[in-house]
UniProtKB/TrEMBL annotation:
<keyword id="KW-0342">GTP-binding</keyword>
<protein>
    <recommendedName>
        <fullName>small monomeric GTPase</fullName>
        <ecNumber>3.6.5.2</ecNumber>
    </recommendedName>
</protein>
<keyword id="KW-0472">Membrane</keyword>
<dbReference type="InterPro" id="IPR005225">
    <property type="entry name" value="Small_GTP-bd"/>
</dbReference>
<keyword id="KW-0449">Lipoprotein</keyword>
<dbReference type="GO" id="GO:0032482">
    <property type="term" value="P:Rab protein signal transduction"/>
</dbReference>
<dbReference type="GO" id="GO:0005794">
    <property type="term" value="C:Golgi apparatus"/>
</dbReference>
<dbReference type="InterPro" id="IPR001806">
    <property type="entry name" value="Small_GTPase"/>
</dbReference>
<keyword id="KW-0488">Methylation</keyword>
<comment type="similarity">
    <text>Belongs to the small GTPase superfamily. Rab family.</text>
</comment>
<keyword id="KW-0547">Nucleotide-binding</keyword>
<dbReference type="GO" id="GO:0005525">
    <property type="term" value="F:GTP binding"/>
</dbReference>
<keyword id="KW-0378">Hydrolase</keyword>
<dbReference type="Pfam" id="PF00071">
    <property type="entry name" value="Ras"/>
</dbReference>
<keyword id="KW-0636">Prenylation</keyword>
<dbReference type="GO" id="GO:0003925">
    <property type="term" value="F:G protein activity"/>
</dbReference>
<dbReference type="InterPro" id="IPR027417">
    <property type="entry name" value="P-loop_NTPase"/>
</dbReference>
Amino acid sequence: MESSLELTTSLPGTCLPPPRSRIFKIIVIGDSGVGKTCLTYRFCAGKFPDKTEATIGVDFREKVIEIDGEKIKVQLWDTAGQERFRKSMVQHYYRNVHAVVFVYDVTNAASFRSLPAWIEECRQHSLGQEVPRILVGNKCDLRDAVQVGTDPAQKFADSHSMPLFETSAKNPDDNDHVEAIFMTVAHKLKSQKPLMLSQPLGGEGFMPMRKSEEEEEKGVLACSC
Ligand SMILES: Nc1nc2c(ncn2[C@@H]2O[C@H](COP(=O)(O)OP(=O)(O)OP(=O)(O)O)[C@@H](O)[C@H]2O)c(=O)[nH]1
């Protein structure tokens, strides 16, 4: 299995169209400060960001991964946790979602208690049970400050039929783990072929949308890999 931040283009001098890749749109949601930006950055850039600021609206990051010889574009939508920064964007990022990653902070019980509200928001935006979901408890490196133990988290995950991953976007030893979390989702999606959208690998890096949606979203989305 290999992964790359680079996108391929068609060979110069050939008339072959660029290869088409499937895209997985995965939204990452949870309270402000739980580490959504750090987790998505860690997966796409392979490191913990030097500094982060509260996400405004939504950022998206992409990474091309290879599963069973097929190159797949994983598009992570890092959403704002703060209500005031997300209101106007909500309906945009719930469109054409293939999977949802719910994140809480293991050192912040309130972020765990908020999970039902995030699940409810997904339901209100018509994300059915057929859309794979996973639960991530982040900041496990802060061992002395843990407020949410594995047991209640596992119970919650089981009651919502989600796998639970406890990890740290910061701990260098957890790099493979962060990668494994998103790769698990990608593997799951790859087996659900009918859900996929596709676009040329060398394309604009954005999922195909209807023209009106495209115009509507111009100027409000930022890519900050
Ligand atoms: N110790 C530790 N700190 C982390 C970890 N992940 C994120 N942080 C810190 O937590 C703070 C918030 O991280 P962000 O990734 O910006 O949080 P967010 O969920 O994207 O926040 P919003 O954009 O406001 O929704 C930052 O100071 C990060 O450095 C982690 O795994 N361990």
